Amino acid sequence: MEIAFEKSGGLVPAIIQDARSDEVLMLGFMNAEALTETRRTREAVFFSRSRNRLWKKGETSGHVLRVLEIRVDCDADALLLRVVPLGPGVCHKGYRSCFFRQIEDNGSVRTVEERRFDPDKVYAPGAER
Amino acid sequence: MEIAFEKSGGLVPAIIQDARSDEVLMLGFMNAEALTETRRTREAVFFSRSRNRLWKKGETSGHVLRVLEIRVDCDADALLLRVVPLGPGVCHKGYRSCFFRQIEDNGSVRTVEERRFDPDKVYAPGAER
């Protein structure tokens, strides 16, 4: 299977969906190496654009994503990973999903999920989140 | 609400999720104008990287995405749209979801969904899909 990494400068978006609840938890980017590592370890590894390196989800927090299934879209330029998330939430701000805010009609945002954990207790001071 | 369009060259990924089944249907990209049009019309409008223009989903097929809710992630650089899709499927290849293929352990892909419609009957010959 050839993934169209070159189409977006070497990176394709990877949607992370909870395999049990079908909730969309986060979106990351993968390069070819991140996808290979994800398939080899069956735990999600991304390429961090801000850190410019591979980044295993949970490497600091322990909130690893166990990958049950990898889907690829019709144009082979986006991935969908169905996962079992370890820990109370995937978001470094303490929520189950990174998509915890809704854009309202007037353009403001409203938090529509409950916080599940205190990030300051999960990440050491100064640690990468 | 400021979306971090500049972080990815003006475009952010927008995940399309069926609001009733929670199935992930497709991923598109939006620039600021596409998001504005989506919010104004309550139907999903993307920026097509291949056509280099705004592209309303369903403009050819009639398979419009009615937008019920727009979520934004913690870094404000990805969107999640919960939609009601009109028509039998969103994929231009005839499937309900663009993520109709699974990557197997040996690297091959396997189609894991049923085809819902015949694209040749929905799109005129030569029409953009």
Describe the structure in your own words.
The structure is a homodimer of 129-residue chains. Chain A is mainly beta. Helices cover 11% and strands 33% of the residues of chain A. The first copy, chain A, has helices spanning 32-41, 119-122, and strands at 12-18, 24-30, 45-48, 53-56, 65-72, 79-85, 101-103, 109-111. A four-stranded mixed beta sheet of chain A has the order 2-1-6-5, covered by helices on one side. In chain A, strands 3-4 form a two-stranded antiparallel sheet. A two-stranded antiparallel sheet of chain A has the order 7-8. The longest helix of chain A is centred in the first third of the chain and has 10 residues, at 32-41. Chain A starts with 11 loop residues before the first strand and ends in a 7-residue tail after the last helix. The mean pLDDT of chain A is 94. Chains A and B meet through strand 1, strand 2, strand 5 and strand 7 of A and strand 1, strand 2, strand 5 and strand 7 of B. Strand 5 (65-72) of chain A pairs antiparallel with strand 7 of chain B, so a sheet runs across the interface.
